Amino acid sequence: MRACIISVGTELVTGQCLDTNAAWLSEQLASVGVEVTEHVTVGDQLQHLAATIRQCIDRFDLVVATGGLGPTRDDLTREALAQAIGQPLVENEEALRNIKVYFQRLQRPFIDANRMQALVPEGCSIILNRRGTAPGLSCQSQNCLVYVLPGVPAEMKAMAEESLLRQLGARATGQAIRMASVLCYGKSEAWIGELLEDLMTPGRNPSVGTTAKDAIITIRMVARAINPPKAQQLLDADIAEVRSRLGKVVFGQGGDTLQDAVARLLMEKHRTVATAESCTGGLIANRLTDIPGSSTYFLQGFVTYSNQAKSDRLGVPAELIERDGAVSEAVAHAMAEGCRKVTNADLAVSVTGIAGPSGGTTEKPVGLVYIGLADDHGGTVKRFLFGEQLPRREIRDRAAKTALNLLRIHLLH
Ligand code: ATP
Q1: Backbone angles phi, psi at 283, to 5 degrees
Q2: How many whole angstroms from 153 Cα to the centroid of ligand 1?
Q3: Model pLDDT for residues 338-362, shown as the tens digit of each residue
């Protein structure tokens, strides 16, 4: 079964609103064996929308449209669908009753404009909307199953789950799709690509591909088989293979973050951590405390931006800063050691660097960052050059991620 998703709304084509509905629907449809091969985004323009729905009905087995079902003049999807399938709009009693009940429940007066939402192209079924007023619509047109759902993501998701996905899941389409993403940090996409080259051969099942965003490399896998357990089996085998080839470079799967991985390890190993940050200004502490339950492992965070603060709070000798500069291996080392001593944490992380855009020299360019780590065996410092061309925000983000990653790898031992 081949499917297309039509996202309706001028706010989507102008970029004022990000189309998250299409992404969610693609993923959900894949899980019931339907492959989405096209996303179309259309503004609130009746003729264009009607023509788009018509063309998609001709080309696909399933068309799912979201948005444009509201009570205002720019909500045109009902009318466009009626034109596309060549049926008149008629008032649907059940839809009208549901809308009235919705208003009664909220103790609000029924507005006449909402009556328009009870208009349904003849031959279409309505899908109850428990969270809003706009009912969804579904119909069979030629060989195509058409679904129209509201644009508001929460309404759309609830209704898709109760109608579309349930119906398609029950149909057992003969093809199941399972997807996974494995997340990596610390190596380039090219390095990872080389190690996974044979798995990435075009046409292979599961298909394996990589994408890079904000220094995190995601390995996406899609497995197809005649039923869900077989697809899952294929996928699991590939996940295990990828994980074994990449080792410690993999920090998680799906929606994991580096801090999730660090938090898991800290909790598992019953270890505590404290941070001493300069150029990251508290980013690491922020991310470590983003996780519920972080009070079990996070003790304290210092933002020691000035030289004075480094000395006063962490005991970094002023002569050391004078001799090597605040951005130096020795200072990163002293910050981590000092932080551990002051807080009594099992582990301390320190960061000192030049986030730019000014302040760089030939010897110490923008993007130079030292990250220190101290535990009961002593301390280590690593030097990184994130690149002078990167904007300040990215250098700080990269420094925070790298520090979390070093902490993660340290905890793996
Ligand atoms: P309702 O009657 O409940 O408003 P609707 O079908 O008329 O439903 P729209 O008016 O098209 O919905 O959209 C309402 C809001 O939902 C938009 O302003 C936007 O915030 C969000 N929205 C619409 N389409 C999408 C989409 N594809 N992805 C994410 N958000 C969306």
Answers
A1: -60, -40
A2: 7
A3: 999 999 999 999 999 999 999 999 9
What is the SS3 assignment for 90?
strand
Range 173-177 average pLDDT = 69
**Contact (CB, 8 A) for 145 and 163:** no
The amino acid at 176: A
Around 306, how many Cα atoms within 13 Å sit in the side-chain half-sphere?
A: 4
72 Cα nearest atom in ligand 1: 7
Which pLDDT value is given to residue 317? 98
C-alpha span between 341 and 345 (Å, rounded): 8
pLDDT at 173 over 60: no
Question: Which ligand 1 atom lies nearest to the CA of residue 117?
Answer: 2
In this prediction, residues 49-72 reach a mean pLDDT of: 95
Q: Could you tell me what percentage of the chain is helix, strand and coil, using 3-state DSSP and rounding each to the nearest 5? A: 45, 25, 30
pLDDT by residue (tens digit) across 395-406?
999 999 999 999
Distance 143 CA to ligand 1 centre (A): 28
Backbone CA torsion sign across 235, 240, 245, 250: positive
- Are 159 and 25 spatial neighbours (Cβ–Cβ below 8 Å)? no
152, 156, 157, 159, best to mutate for ligand 1 pocket (most atoms within 8 Å of CB)? 152
Rounded to 5 degrees, what angle do the CA atoms 334, 337, 342 make?
115
Alpha helices (runs of H) in 176-257, residue ranges in sequence order: 189-195, 228-246
Which residue type is seen at 248? Answer: K
Our answer on whether the CB atom of 69 is closer than 6 Å to any ligand 1 atom is yes
DSSP helix/strand/coil, 326: coil
User: pLDDT tens digit string along 74-131?
Assistant: 889 999 999 999 999 999 999 999 888 888 888 888 888 888 889 999 999 999 888 8
- How far, in Å, is the centroid of ligand 1 from the Cα of 24? 14
Question: HEC states along 328-392?
Answer: CHHHHHHHHHHHHHHHCCCEEEEEEECCCCCCCCCCCCCCEEEEEEEECCEEEEEEEECCCCCCH
Ligand 1 nearest atom to the CA of residue 74, by list position: 10
Edge-to-edge strands of the sheet including 273-277? 298-303, 273-277, 347-353, 368-375, 378-385
**What secondary structure letter does DSSP report for 297?**
T
pLDDT, average across residues 234-246: 98
